[in-house]
């Protein structure tokens, strides 16, 4: 039976989103179910069942199922990790305890480093040593390694991380250690740093490998349970999972290297923004994804999401990192550069001991959820505030699937916030929304202005269940000229799962001043990485003509301890191409840090290669030509609060499914659909394009 459908499932903190695409017709269907935090796979399977039943299709016709998951991150944050052992060079067993001197707040004397993921008694130093060129100084002591394996076996270790000094340049000792550990302790999963993160800086490499080892059994069990249940349901399509850098991996590859899944879920939204922006002719996009628990912001320049290699995860890691700050566990794998803050629809509003109104970081989540959900929640949230302000329809939340209790929302805000602040409920609700907006504007600045980009040169892609409610206001604050609200914005991240390619990331360290490097040497190093990538893609059934290889290099001025990543051409390099790359580095350094020093010597640090297996992208479905008047889409009017109008304004409410291409919705107005609500502020209008996207911009006379 020929495959006909693709299914994307994205698990969020509050809802699990699903998108089903008919590859023959281009028809897109979406669905939402409540997430199940205690066992995310239950929400995943419920979403699969919902889509199959709704569409009445044979499970065997589903060719791809792509999954975005937070299980890797959550296992670390919640401490639900496997019992792990750590093997390193003799004399360096305290590497995880010592960690780094970096701290999130320089003068915070109370700061404590995150507790090592592997306790000291499960860390083992084994006699062996390489020098910085990879030459053997001390041979590997295989007997000591076997003794360490027996100790870990007695301690019932599930997974082992191996990180020897300088293994990034010569992996032979690590490979041999992997063989011995597999023979002596066949039940353990073994992660080698030379395979997970083959780069210099031993602590970052060790931390990345340890995280991979700690979550590997957890992620493997989770993915296998999904495979077993989907197979029982008759689904035989290829199973893929989104990775942090924006590509997808097969379930088997993800089970071996789960550290690449740390930001799996949030990455899908940025990929979707990249795809939609490209289709609409916008290469520079700021992605704004506001769900039930968090708001996530990413930046796309020249059609490519910004990626960082310095990222942290962990219980003490602060929201909105995107760059390493010393508060969590660092990982050295490519991650889409996101700023994530605790400002979702379920974020709780509260009054602190000083009488100041605050919003987040705690969230009501999926259970019990906001007070208006009627599930027993008593704490006021952003969703409750928007309901009190008239921006949400209590009878049409999730298309009427959930009836919102406006009285419960009113009561929660009054009891927890308004009374303490001596404000009426509407004023308190407006304060909650404005405080959340302020936090999200700051996130937008962090990902644009702080990175050296002018947000006025970008468009804002607003999505997520709560994103379109706030997007217009945020764009106005940032002076972003156009805001795009895609069709079915509540499931846009799930759409991102279906428009990304298979991807494997590889790297190798090469430290040398750039003017001394032979172009042939660079080509040979990239060729070795391409061989690995081509083999991985071939195992996954990718044809040669569908393979693409992207080259990059980490570069810095001599003496710096940080690098910038610059693109390199995919063809053979020569001195002219290297000179162009050098000029590109100076420009990027000036944009990022405000200065450059062309007279200073420059050195290569790491070479990076992405092996991409291109898949056929679905086409956006164009709206049918409708000759109806915009008034036909008007379903009601409702009083909605806007600070620009100093109070409530009687607003037209439009049914998005009845809006046609070319319709112009003048603000103030509200556009409703099953999975989200778009608020258009006074002084703005929304033009409906041929694909049904809402293009929000200011009136020229404002």
Please give a structural write-up.
- With 702 residues, this protein is α+β, with helices and mostly antiparallel strands.
- The chain has five domains: 5-76 and 220-261, Nucleotidyltransferase, domain 5 (2-Layer Sandwich), CATH 3.30.420; 80-212, 3-Layer(aba) Sandwich (Dna Topoisomerase Vi A Subunit, Chain: A, domain 2); 283-481, 2-Layer Sandwich (Nucleotidyltransferase, domain 5), CATH 3.30.420; 502-613, Dna Ligase, domain 1 (2-Layer Sandwich); 630-698, no CATH class.
- It is built from 16 helices and 35 strands.
- Strands 13, 14, 15, 20, 23, 24, 31, 34 and 35 form a nine-stranded mixed beta sheet that branches.
- β9 (159-163), α5 and β10 form a beta-alpha-beta unit.
- α2 packs across α7 (202-232), α10 crosses α11 and α10 (382-388) crosses α12 (425-447).
- Mean pLDDT is 90; it is low at 315-324.
Summarize the structure.
The protein is of the alpha+beta class and 702 residues long. Strand 34 and strand 35 form a beta hairpin.
Based on the model shown, name its key terms:
six-stranded mixed sheet, 16 helices, Dna Topoisomerase Vi A Subunit, Chain: A, domain 2, Nucleotidyltransferase, domain 5, 702 residues, single chain
How is the secondary structure organized here?
Blueprint: E1 5-11, E2 15-22, E3 28-34, H1 40-55, E4 62-68, H2 71-77, E5 84-89, H3 95-98, E6 123-126, E7 129-130, E8 136-138, H4 142-154, E9 159-163, H5 172-184, E10 189-192, H6 193-196, H7 202-232, E11 238-242, E12 248-250, H8 251-256, H9 264-280, E13 285-290, E14 295-301, E15 304-305, E16 307-308, E17 311-313, E18 329-331, E19 335-336, E20 338-341, E21 347-351, E22 357-363, H10 382-388, H11 406-421, H12 425-447, E23 459-463, H13 467-478, E24 483-485, H14 492-497, E25 502-513, H15 519-539, E26 547-557, E27 564-568, H16 575-593, E28 602-613, E29 634-642, E30 647-655, E31 664-666, E32 669-673, E33 676-680, E34 684-688, E35 694-698
Parallel strand pairs: 1-4, 4-11, 5-6, 5-9, 9-10, 13-23, 23-24, 30-32
Antiparallel strand pairs: 1-2, 2-3, 7-8, 11-12, 13-14, 14-15, 14-20, 16-19, 17-18, 21-22, 24-35, 25-28, 26-27, 26-28, 29-30, 31-34, 32-33, 34-35
